[in-house]
């Protein structure tokens, strides 16, 4: 007999608290889910925009109605601080409501033929079954900003969530399934076996997760000739110019380093102080990070909760070993996988902190001679997701913006924070393929067809 693989999810603030253990369906179970979704796709597309719009609106309403329950589940399963969990649930409902209008949008255009009578039509059509592979750090928002546009465009969806967020994914799936026809949305728990099966069976693929896995997903999907997008790592910089409001910059940067224990692809992990900004920023940012409330994610005052598991906590604590810490650099003596928000200086060139994503509340303070030097430091990593620039002179910021090799640039704002109605994505090793969110997502989940209409010859 073949051993059944179990998916186990634990509370990172209290590892003895097991939320669930469920059997993984294996590769055959995923293939069956994809076939059911494929059978359901034609009906879902042909039901028309009014039905699809009403279904997505119903999902949004149900999420709003269950907001307290979903918030508590995110706090318990993935250790998201209460305030952030509430904000994520609210944003999740807004995402579904935003895409509920999309089925009514134009899907093509009419053109004149180059010669003679007739018409040329372009029309966007869904790919079929969208396979979604999502991480644990935004257990409701990321599956939603992938699934909602896919469904709005007429695709059906099979979701494979991260094992650590299985309970959240299953609860979200229940809400979605109540509003959709059978087979239109399926959640398959599991790990690499199930993810690999989805990559080799879906008609369009969207992935968010680690760089190594994302690159493998992109290669496999490309070899099959199916559209794929992969959102991967970040090693994001905050550039602080001498004319910046240093206290405000320190507040924004501390939030970007320590919020949700730095477990966001948009978190700040390098702080680049230009010229005379170095000394006042060192003092202000050290104080701001030291003041960040660390503790139980269920406490409304908590900003930095636990890391997702022991391996993540150990990776963070190993990263600062032997380095000079201006703030943090300690592991609290308490149950759960916690690490203090940490600011390091004099990090030697080539250190892993300056080349690899650690995914924890740790950042390096780096000096730069001028803006051009800061831009070179920012660009000298394999990633290019988001950069924050802190200055009171917009002209100064504009001079450097186009030289930043990042997909998103935020002026006088934290590097974290996502607006779901505009494209999201990065450069280099941070992203592969088309952008997510906004109108870009609707284009990704559809393909363009060109129709030539010529009049029949009459006798």
Q: Can you offer a commentary on this structure?
A:
This protein is globular. The model has no long low-confidence stretch (mean pLDDT 95). It has 14 helices and 20 strands. It has 459 residues and is an alpha/beta fold. It has helices spanning 26-46, 49-65, 67-78, 82-99, 141-152, 166-179, 192-199, 211-224, 246-258, 278-290, 310-319, 371-379, 394-401, 438-444; strands at 6-11, 14-23, 108-112, 119-126, 129-134, 156-161, 185-187, 204-208, 228-231, 236-240, 268-274, 324-327, 342-345, 362-368, 383-384, 386-390, 408-411, 427-428, 431-432, 446-453. The longest helix has 21 residues, at 26-46. Helix 9 links the parallel strand 10 and strand 11. Strands 12-13-14-11-10-16-17 form a 7-stranded mixed sheet. Strands 7-6-5-8-9-19 form a 6-stranded mixed sheet, sandwiched between helices. It has a 3-stranded antiparallel sheet with strand order 3-4-20.
Helix content: 25-40%
Q: What is the topology, as strand order, of the major beta sheet?
A: 12-13-14-11-10-16-17
Beta-strand residue percentage: 15-25%
The total strand number stands at: 20
What structural class do you assign from the helix and strand content? alpha/beta
Distance N to C terminus: 72 Å
Q: Mind describing the biggest β-sheet? A: 7 strands, mixed
Rg? 23 Å
The stretches of 5 or more residues where confidence is low (pLDDT under 50) are none
Can you give the mean pLDDT? 95
Q: Number of DSSP helices? A: 14
Global geometry: globular
